[in-house]
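Task card 7
Instruction: Convert sequence to structure tokens.
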Amino acid sequence: MELLGACSGDLYDYVAIRAPRSAGVLRAHLELSSGKPIPTIVCSTGGSGREDLLVSSIDRDALAGWVVAVPHFDVDGVAVITADSQIRVPLVERDLRRETHRYERRDPTLILAMRHAEDRMASGRTTIEVTQVVPASGADVWRVRVDYRSLDAADSLEGTPALRVLGSDGSQKPGVPIVLDDALGADDDGIPVRHVTFSIRVRPEEAESVVIAADLDRGESPARTDPTALGRAIAPSAAAGVMALGHAAAKLRSSFAVSTVDAENDNGYELWFDRHRFTWADAERQRSLCVAHPQEVLPVSVVLPVGSGQSDEAAKAAATISAQSYPVRELLVVGAAYDCAAATSSGGRRARHLMVTGDAATLVNAALSALDESSTHVLLVSPKDRLEPSALWCLARVAQKTGCDIAYCDGDAMSNGHLSAPQMRPFANLGKLRSMDYLGSPVLISRSLPSRVGWLSDASCERWPFSTLLYDLELRAFESHASFAQTPHVLSHRCGDESGIHEGCRAALQAHLARCGVSASVEDGPRPRSFLIRYELPDPAPRVSIILPNRDHANSLEACVRSLLANTDYKNFEIAIIDCGSAEPATHELCRRLSADSRVRVIGRSPEGGETQGGQPALNYSASINYGVARTTGELLLFLDNDVRAVDAAWLGEMVGQLNRPEVAIVGAKLLGEDGLVRHAGVVADGSGRNMLLNRNIMGTAPGYLLSAALPSDFNMVTGVCQLVRREVFQKLGGYDERLAVGYNDSDFCLRAREAGYSVTLAPRACLVHRGLSSCDEGECNADARARLFGEQGYIRGRHASFFARGDDAFSLELDRWSEHCRLPW
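Output:
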């Protein structure tokens, strides 16, 4: 071996070496002042376009050029090892700076060959990439992907993946790395690769100085390669690798924080709104259309109840009503003369005052009784609302188009003239409405709706403020199967706080549950006007058949089943392991031991069909589910992946409790990764029709946008990783579609249930741990798997074309259709 030179860089120092090709792949380790040698990166210049800088074309058949990248440790030197020789290169910072200056003047091409070599081509063995830095309390969560490669038959990918975070002196930082995923695959050149994803905690103040070291621990003696020893910090095997992140750690942290800022917390919302709001020119065109086509204008009366002390607020609300681009038949300002004078004056020539005193229910009742006889719709407006000029136009148009009973819009908060906290609301669903009063005001209702649903008929509502009355109306509308429609535009700005509303909303919710005959307790949610409903389970509790398709993977299967047996409070369940042709003796032995528990059955199934996977018949997940359903007896069916673990004993009871709503057919759970980050908390279709996992990779304790990761809400789809289904619905819909062997079968089933009129809901308080990466991520390692997933995606998009054409309304169409975190579409 021949030392060609050395230089310094931003994250690494570099050493250039020329060695005989017969020496094979070089390895190197650092000699630290602390006496803890660790491996480092060896980069080949072959194929990088810069080999001529180290090896002449004449010598290229016999010699190879290498660059050793040395992280900024307190390094005494670096030892470079081949099969039959070793050299030691001392690295003194002062000498290194001098060498760098010399080469920059005399031989800049050598500097060019060395710097950033780690970005061009490592030795091929192991590459390390920090994919995410998630801000968290105390220590951030780092997601690290390590690819171990096998370059020849002598390279083994066996062993336990090891990852350590090292300080500048080589000492190991505290924290135990968690293996999130471990899968075999191949790169584009067909080289076997073992893909391992780790998660580890790193303190932000240490991020720039640490180095990540990875290896495969095979339990071998360090002396096998170097009798001078490397200690047990990291054995210097061919699979060893290191990486320094430096300033990139802060950039990754900042990038993740920015990418996960939802619409409610976006500081640039006012600018976004100014770019997307209806203009005055739009309002003038709307007025012109109403004048030109009066027969198409809905006769709308507006009701503005004004309580004591709300004179100024009501006047401002009335002014925005008088500025509407859509004609108003009348504006009824209801309340005492003193409180309503300013509002009546601001409301224009269509405004009239209705002299009534009393609580909000009395005011609204009087207004509904005094409506213009020709009005077919009523716009209910709070004194705290400030309407956009196009608000009534949009609400009336959607009501006219859909024939709905209630039309609503998006809104935000206004304070001191500034706008913030936009609420881009999803489709109207009882699951979310029971969790929080999210529809708000204004709402446009059909004139007949209040009498049909019995609104304002209970004496208990006499003490409720107007906002609570609206919440009660919306709950009653669901009880009576009234129809809702949304216009996805921010058309209302809410002024002032909502103090005094929460207790009234709780009372309205409790009254709603009583009318529905639901036994449940109502607790406060994580923010005002949000609630936790704890449903009482029926007695006797329905039997749940947990159907768990499996082939081999004994370790995952055992962890899954043992956790279900130990961490499930719900008693009436059975576990049916659908063994789909397991070949490993360890799996057969495990199934024998597990079936000793009376709650566990092992049902054998021979895979059918000509398609193969790893030399075996391909596993058709849908067929396995259908097979298991036919051989179990539970009233409820729970489909579960074999890499899921139960950690909270209440999980199954929470899911079954959601079925107190008779319209709910499918219930999903919140799934966390091993490191506590969210894996699944809602599934929606993105702009291309692919499944997108809402709230992915936020902290498991984070509430999500509009509490979507904290409280139950209805969706169009939930993941089949953990999916509870009513048996009668499963049979009515014909089960899982076996043409969707692996991907999108759960989504297809949910969409068919929605088309049949059922609801699909997510129960975030049913929380489990899911280890495996998504099937789409795993499929990216294999071209055949990618082709299959594309085919399955095309099939489901064709089958549910109308759904994908209009977009998934489980989150607002006004949000970024490509964002997992409900961002504004800038």
